[in-house]
Amino acid sequence: MEIIKLKAPTITPPKMCCDEDLHKKLNDYELTTYLNSHSTNLLLGKPKSGKSSLMWAFLKNKKLLNGVYHNVYLFQPEHSRASIKGNIFKKHDPTKMFDELTYDNLSEVIQRINHTAQDVL
Questions:
Q1: DSSP state, residue 1
Q2: What distance lies between CA 50 and its chain's CA centroid?
């Protein structure tokens, strides 16, 4: 048996926008390093377990998610949004807020995101 080492070509892989961090501040904490990429994340839990409170706290905190995203869609019942003191979405674009998560609402948001992505490319 003979091992032959072949000459390797020099290649430069392309840089992908989605491979970059969303924001360097998200690397300050181990928990938020997992959120520092272009990805889909789910926050799941039983009713009244603090999912909304945690997400709102992350979005409101300047050291965490505040200012990281430029396009936020919110699926939360209106009465639930209204019950929060210091509502960060009080002046949010109403066309980006939905009282419930339905197939039609989600399809609409996906179409908007795809349209925005095409404009960027």
A1: -
A2: 19
Which pTM does this prediction carry? 0.70
CA distance linking residue 74 with residue 80, whole number of Å: 12
Q: Strand pairing of 97-98 and 74-75?
A: parallel
79 three-state secondary structure? helix
Round to whole Å and give the CA distance between 44 and 115.
28
> pLDDT (tens digit, 9 = 90+) per residue, 18-68?
788 999 999 999 989 989 988 878 888 898 898 888 988 999 999 999 999
User: What are the structure tokens assigned to 48, written together?
Assistant: 């009244």
